[in-house]
Hints:
With 294 residues, this protein is mostly helical. It has 19 helices and no strands. 66% of the residues lie in helices and 0% in strands.
Amino acid sequence: DEPVALTAKCQAEIRQVIYNTGGHIELQPWIYEPCFKDLSTFCSSITTPGQKQECLQDNIDKLQPNCKKSIQEFSKEAESDLHVDNYAYRICKPMAKKFCAEEMAQDTEKPGGALIECMIKHKVHSDMTVECAAVIEHYQILNLKDFKASYNLAKTCRDDFTKHCKDTKTPVEALQCLSEIKMKSVIGADQKETPGVEQLSPECAKELNFNLLQRSESVKLDPVLNKACGEDIEKFCPNVKPGKRRVTKCLESNRKELSEKCHTLLFKRERAIYKDQRNDMMLMRRCKGMIAKH
């Protein structure tokens, strides 16, 4: 059967029905029924409404196919309109009103992921609550586990994945693949060698910039660097809290002592930021006003 396009009014009503379930997964049969077995396997000890969905998201790479598909759809809907995830929305509602009131209204009227993107940009603000920051980071890490759970990335980079990165096996590998294509195109442009250099679509390149911007903020959002430098982090930065580039700065300060694989990858990350300062989360946050002005 051909899929039916729902009216905006109908979509809004459906989102309200989901929100009214209060996060109780038992009242969401589109998740509860296909995920019944996985709930018993991974989330049997959880009783708080909303946290069972979060538990399934945390284990998305281990779920049964039908359950995985349901969680992917739930997560995409939640990213496009955070109201869909009642648990996350209740925790972050005060922060959303404080930092992203316009985007909050925008997603309520026409879901498009504006609110979650705005909240990510303000995650490291000194006024952001620890609880809401944890919810935001949960969605960031989920996107690294499964691109199909990401509303914006799945929508804007689908064709680019197929064209350039179809042999990659994991979301992290796919993001790395797109990042390398972007870097080669930037270097090619610098050296006036653009002919023959692969290019990303403008929409995907913009979304990729935002994802790389997130990666620079915390080593937890850069699994490749975290793995390559795991022993170095344990040796030189055991008490450094992830976030605000603290772990990366610690590694940089111990550069001469780092293992070869960590040193090499750290250099690649620094080169990417040098080539495009938009990939530096802390710089973009601290200099936002000046950048907008000039």
